Amino acid sequence: MMNVKSTLQQELEALSAARYPLHMPGHKRRQPPAQGLDCYAWDMTEIDGADDLHDADGILAAAMARTAALYGARRCWYLVGGSTVGLLAGIRALAPFGSTVIAARNCHKAVYHALELGRLTAHWLTPPVDAQFGVYGSVRPADVAAALDAAPEARCVILTSPTYEGVLSDIASIVQLCHARGVPVLVDEAHGAHYLPFAAQYGWQGGAVQAGADLVVQSAHKTLPSLTQTAFLQLNGDLADPAEVERQLDVFETSSPSYPLLVSLDGCTRWLAEQGPQAFAAWRSRLTVFDEAARKFKNIKVLCYGSDAPHPDFFAYDSGKILLQIGAAGAAYLRRNGFEPEMVCGPNVLAMTSPSDDADALERLADVLNAWDETATPPAAPAHILPAPGAARCTIGEALLRPAHTVPLRDAVGQTAAEYLWAYPPGVPLVAPGETITAELTAACAELAQAGTRVRHTGGSDTEAILVLR
Length: 470
Fold this sequence. Notes:
Layout: H1 7-18, H2 59-71, E1 75-79, H3 82-94, E2 100-104, H4 109-117, E3 121-125, H5 141-150, E4 157-160, E5 167-168, H6 171-179, E6 185-188, E7 215-218, H7 220-223, E8 231-235, H8 242-252, H9 259-294, E9 301-302, E10 316-317, E11 321-325, H10 327-336, E12 343-345, E13 348-352, H11 361-375, H12 396-399, E14 404-408, E15 421-423, E16 428-431, H13 439-450, E17 455-457, E18 465-469
Parallel strand pairs: 2-3, 2-4, 4-6, 6-7
Antiparallel strand pairs: 1-8, 5-10, 7-8, 9-11, 11-13, 12-13, 14-18, 15-16, 15-17
């Protein structure tokens, strides 16, 4: 990731060399767990001098303060359980057990699990669906204001921006109207850890930290050079209690956090501070070259690239995401030519970029796509892959405690779901427990199956059945 060692790594190496370990971990920093896994040499536990992630006042506190300063946040917590643990802890810190929240329907499944565990009642904000690509558009500030009017008891507003496909909402305007009513905003920015202050000059504006969101969850590993499972939880303002956030992190996150993962986050921070502007400028240049190449495609649609038509339901779009409408056959062609896409869902195939891509990676991608474009028949535009949610008859938590049985999906219209259905990725539920099953949902499942996309059923039913309440 970087040629120089991070400050945290240097401190852990010094600790490792100072004393013989009569403590965990069992490899004793002498037995490699696997060939090439060299970080075992400074894999620590919470000994004297190594600090404690759950009560940090030493080297970990200093590392997290460096990251907070880089992002312009009041406080930052390192997460070794991915953005998932940040969402679980953040929502629980803002919304007491049994309370009400306002949440965007296109939130990740981790948000739904937080609602489930907290027995929360959700007032959904369902963004408009883009007709060309079948993805959710932006959450509109007017819809948030209307939801606050309808649910004045709501303890927080939960949004995802950017989405998995790269759609951003007007977080600054939403934060302003929520704060006018004293309601905190939590933003799942798992796919937007690259929205730093310095990134704005290279085209990445609209980050949730700069917009003043109270809690912002970011997966450093998704778009930045950090190890898988690493994330940040950023805090702004005074509407979120940092002590309560820490208490909930103590509940949901492991009490034995991985020091190699913590070093990865500190090293990522230092890389961003020292090399970020140069790397982001090069990233922007690569994306500009790809945009020019995409203008020559005749059959392939690329969201917000090339000659793609305007999308009136998007506030803004993260150009680091390249959403291709080439279907499963196009994805297979990419694999045969040396590229593995992030996602295949219906006709859409997602290619994720980052500041760490090879200098010629997107040029090579454009060449492969150009060859596919010469002979490919474009897939049909998605018609039903994002069904509007059915009416909620009870909360998610209540539905999961009630008796249920399995019925064929085709016969389930009008009944109440007792399980989640979703395509993963992106992990946004098509239906949640407690919601009415609609004909639109069954059509969506059929269309996704026909396109080769597997719909996951969490309650144990097979792909042509669904668990419903008795």
